[in-house]
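Progress against Task 2.4 (sequence-to-structure conversion) is shown through the following example record, which the project officer requested during the mid-term review.
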Amino acid sequence: MTTPHDLENLDMSESAPERPDYFDPSLYPDESLPTGRHYLDGGAFIFDQPETIPAVWGAGNDVLWAEGEALIVYGGSGVGKTTIAGQLVRALVLGDSDVLGQPVAPAAGNVLYLAMDRPRQAARSLSRQFHPAQRDAVSRRLKVWPGPPPEDMADRTELLRQMCREARASHVVVDSLKDAAMGLSDDRVGAGWNRARQGALVDGVQVLELHHQIKARADSPKGIDAVYGSTWITTGAGSVVHLDGAPGDAVVKFRHLKQPADEVGPFDVLHDARTGLSTVVNDADPLTIVRARGQITVNDLAGVMFATDAPSRNEVEKAHRKLDGLARSKQLEKTPQTAQSGAAMATVYTIPDSG
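Structure tokens generated for the chain above:
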């Protein structure tokens, strides 16, 4: 079998087959067709690719969202999907911040936010990302569609691209996918959505999709198979991220399940409900966690420190020492709790009242 290396010294001018007799190049000198369709030449398609993957979010081989490829962020309710999306929107619009330690390339055009799932909640989440002094910039660069789309996007596959053109958007956030297309478990619907997303991508629009997982059971599928709906939803995406946790958790697990390059993570992510910012938890800092949660118990901290739902006695004791040390230094306030029956409950640690 001939390999590309074997062809280095070969005269390719003599090896290309003749065009068939029925092709008359004089009719179409630029090789265009009467339909107006444009075809790339094979050399440009194969050899004119950049050496590194152009990234919307990430750099080098650590790419979470590649240009020209959709990113899906999925998970259960209340795990921070909209929080992460909001930070990406801010970085795209203002170009002034990283997200989870990874750079975000500023948007060349507008950002279209399809706030189809609980738009008022999305507005509250986004409000934590911007200051009122930035209103003019946000008004110019961020366009929002609140509520359901005009039509089902899996049925009218050109609608997503059309709305992006109307908004002059270079990036679109789909929040959430279940509201863009009905019946996502049907392969026909999944394929229709994939065609819609690919149409937007071919138009140069970068696509971020927020999506849900199947209802968790002991025998539920794991990993990328836990994404709700047709296999075409994830098959057509370039990158898939899973946020794993319970509703309202301040700390969730971040898993990069499908990658355009190297895997990023896994790691824990801390959501700060007050600021709307998320950070990678490399070493569980009790003060940071308490600020995000409002309060914490010894068992809570042990679970975060050792990434387990059932910490051992030794792990609980290590967490106890950390919290008691911070209480002794007055950085935390320690408050024993008592049930109405008089039984002792878990002690709660909080940030002292500065007043």
